[in-house]
């Protein structure tokens, strides 16, 4: 029997490890079985949001049924910590008589160490194959064979590679035998928060593909113009599916390709703006795989370790709860807490606010995001936070600090997004919605907090904090 270990790749299409197991099993006249290891203690240690955990477990129930229909049994194994995974898998391998283990390679350091321990512990071969990116980490390197530290040259090299070699994806496997029964994992009733959040993220068979198709058919060509407006449904909302591997990035490429008849490989082609975001995803994944310190709370630019971030629990709580007195920041943070998701423009605004206006460390923001997001993904989250804080690869320059008021005016001009999430401001007209404390007279005024910092002052302090750093030279 060939055993496939599912991890952050809860799909049947474009699954290289499943494909390899099926090929080998067919060649040797064997069966295929599958396993998923539930590591709740480790997930909590990694700050995984409870809604994300629920999303994964509900998806597993669907995946188990899909596999069973193809004659592949999915085993669910509990190993609370990664350290317990080798023994748990060894027991299953022994019990089921597996002759090889197949999985997709991980990029995060704890996951990689777990996989090394599994390889060392098991008595059968463990075959790890790439599959979480379109191009695997290590394939897009500088002329000197080093990882790119700047996005634009990375994206040029990535596009050259695709233009030269194309890409291909694996179909879902044909049935391996008669359909099997499937005993789903028994889950407690959803909490009210889970019900609200998961409504936006169905996991039934075909749900992610349907959303991808709808976005590609109806919205991808306007993505460039609408992607920064949080009040509009201008982005794909595929992130939770991509983060859990319910959808592969190559499926996204293929959908774009088939809609346009070609892949948009240059900036001015229709559809390129969206492809470019998928390349950002690859950039951060390649970096995380090649720079283990990014998985360990360390900044990419090492000299920024000396930054004197403040410790202020009250300020942090006000940011988390959306009580900063800056309407766009507060709307975004309340939306995150209630839905487990936040628009990209808003992620940039609130991350800048935490680090450059409140001078609190990006690591705290990164962990809080992870604890709330249904699409929590170490590479993208770490990349986004370090970009905003000015500590990352190709980060925003330290002297360019987002102004939360003008960002709101520019990207939520009528205040529609703010009114949706900040009920104290529900009646405020567009003219005052971004500066409700300057001249707006209304009974609700007292209920909405005053700005907790003066942005102009905080901005100068942030710049001074960076200027005091001993200069870099250690970005490698
Ligand atoms: C501070 C911060 C934290 C973030 N944390 C996460 C996270 O935990 N998980 C996550 O998936 N994304 C994260 N992002 C990236 C981005 O905000 C989300 O991927 C995006 O908002 C998801 O919405 P969408 O699916 O509609 O994306 P679209 O705009 O439709 O983009 C398509 C896909 O491309 C990928 N993508 C888009 N933008 C980025 C980006 N800047 N970096 C990496 N990948 C990108 C995502 O997989 C996304 O689903 C973060 C960004 C910032 C600034």
TrEMBL record:
Q: Where does FAD bind?
A: 223, 235-239, 274, 277-284, 375-377
Q: What top-level branch of life does the organism fall under? A: Bacteria
Catalytic activity line of the entry: cyclobutadipyrimidine (in DNA) = 2 pyrimidine residues (in DNA)
Q: What class of enzyme is it?
A: lyase
What one GO molecular function would you report for this record?
DNA binding
The UniProt note on the cofactor reads as follows: Binds 1 FAD per subunit.
Query: Which part of the chain is the Photolyase/cryptochrome alpha/beta domain?
Result: 1-137
> Has keyword Phosphoprotein?
no
A GO BP term, please?
A: photoreactive repair
The record's EC number reads 4.1.99.3
User: Where exactly is the site Electron transfer via tryptophanyl radical?
Assistant: 309, 362, 385
Identify the InterPro entries for this entry.
Crypto/Photolyase_FAD-like_sf, Crypto/Photolyase_N_sf, Cryptochr/Photolyase_FAD-bd, Cryptochrome/DNA_photolyase_1, DNA_photolyase_1_CS_C, DNA_photolyase_N, Rossmann-like_a/b/a_fold
Name any cofactors this protein relies on: FAD; (6R)-5,10-methylene-5,6,7,8-tetrahydrofolate
Query: Which Pfam families would you find in this protein's record?
Result: DNA_photolyase (PF00875), FAD_binding_7 (PF03441)
**Record key words, sorted:** Chromophore, FAD, Flavoprotein, Lyase
Question: Could you tell me which NCBIfam families the record lists for this protein?
Answer: PRK10674.1
Q: What does this protein do?
A: Involved in repair of UV radiation-induced DNA damage. Catalyzes the light-dependent monomerization (300-600 nm) of cyclobutyl pyrimidine dimers (in cis-syn configuration), which are formed between adjacent bases on the same DNA strand upon exposure to ultraviolet radiation.
Q: Which family does it belong to?
A: Belongs to the DNA photolyase family.
Q: What is this protein called?
A: Deoxyribodipyrimidine photo-lyase
Gene from which the chain derives? phrB
């Amino acid at each position: 029997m060939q055993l496939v270990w599912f991890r952050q790749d809860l799909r049947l299409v474009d699954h290289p490890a499943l494909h390899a197991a099926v090929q080998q099993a067919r060649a040797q006249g064997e069966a295929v079985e599958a396993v998923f290891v539930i590591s709740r203690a480790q997930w909590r240690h990694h700050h995984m949001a409870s809604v994300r955990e629920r999303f994964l477990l509900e998806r597993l129930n669907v995946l188990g049924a899909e596999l069973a229909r193809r004659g592949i049994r999915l085993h669910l194994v509990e190993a609370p910590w990664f350290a317990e995974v080798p023994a748990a898998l060894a027991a299953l391998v022994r019990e089921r008589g597996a002759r090889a283990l197949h999985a997709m390679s991980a990029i995060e350091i704890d996951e990689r160490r777990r996989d090394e321990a599994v390889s060392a512990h098991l008595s059968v071969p463990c075959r790890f194959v790439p599959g979480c990116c379109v191009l695997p980490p290590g394939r897009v390197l500088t002329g000197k064979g080093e990882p790119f530290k700047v996005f634009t040259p990375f994206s040029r090299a990535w596009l050259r590679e695709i233009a030269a070699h194309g890409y291909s994806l694996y179909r879902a496997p044909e049935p391996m035998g008669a359909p099997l029964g499937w005993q789903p994992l028994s889950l407690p009733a959803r909490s009210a928060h889970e019900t609200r959040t998961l409504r936006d993220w169905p996991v039934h068979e075909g749900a992610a593909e349907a959303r991808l198709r709808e976005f590609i058919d109806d919205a991808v060509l306007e993505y460039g113009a609408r992607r920064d407006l949080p009040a509009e449904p201008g982005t794909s909302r595929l992130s939770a599916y991509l983060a859990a591997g319910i959808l592969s990035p190559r499926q996204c490429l293929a959908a774009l390709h088939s809609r346009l008849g070609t892949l948009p490989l240059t900036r001015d082609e229709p559809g390129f703006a969206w492809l470019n975001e998928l390349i950002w995803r690859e950039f951060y994944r390649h970096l995380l795989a090649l720079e283990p310190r990014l998985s360990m709370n360390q900044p990419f630019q090492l000299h920024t370790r000396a930054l004197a971030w403040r410790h202020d629990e009250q300020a942090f709580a006000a940011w988390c709860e959306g009580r900063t007195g800056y309407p766009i920041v507060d709307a975004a943070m309340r939306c995150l807490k209630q839905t487990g998701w936040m628009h990209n423009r808003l992620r940039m605004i609130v991350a800048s606010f935490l680090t450059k206006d409140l001078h609190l460390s990006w690591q705290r923001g990164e962990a809080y995001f992870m604890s709330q997001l249904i699409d929590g993904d170490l590479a993208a989250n770490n990349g986004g936070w370090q970009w905003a804080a000015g500590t990352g690869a190709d980060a925003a320059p330290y002297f360019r600090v987002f102004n939360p008021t003008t960002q709101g005016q520019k990207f939520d001009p009528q205040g529609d997004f703010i009114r949706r999430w900040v009920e104290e401001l529900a009646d405020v007209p567009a003219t005052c919605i971004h500066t409700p404390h300057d001249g707006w007279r209304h009974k609700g005024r007292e209920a909405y907090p005053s700005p907790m910092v003066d942005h102009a002052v905080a901005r100068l302090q942030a710049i001074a904090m960076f200027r005091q750093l001993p200069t870099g030279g250690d970005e490698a």
